[in-house]
Amino acid sequence: MGREVRGLVETEFASRIDLVGTPGRAAPPASLFNCDVILDFALPEPCAEVARALLAHAKGEPVPALVVGSTGWSRESENLLHQLCTRTPVLKATNFSIGVLTVARILRDYAPILKDFGYTPVLIEAHHKHKKDAPSGTAQTLRQSIDPLHPESVQTHAIRAGEVIGDHEVTFHGAADRITIGHFAQNRTLFARGALEAVLWLAELRESGASGRVLSMEDWFSTRQHGHS
Question: How much is the pTM?
Answer without folding.
Answer: 0.80
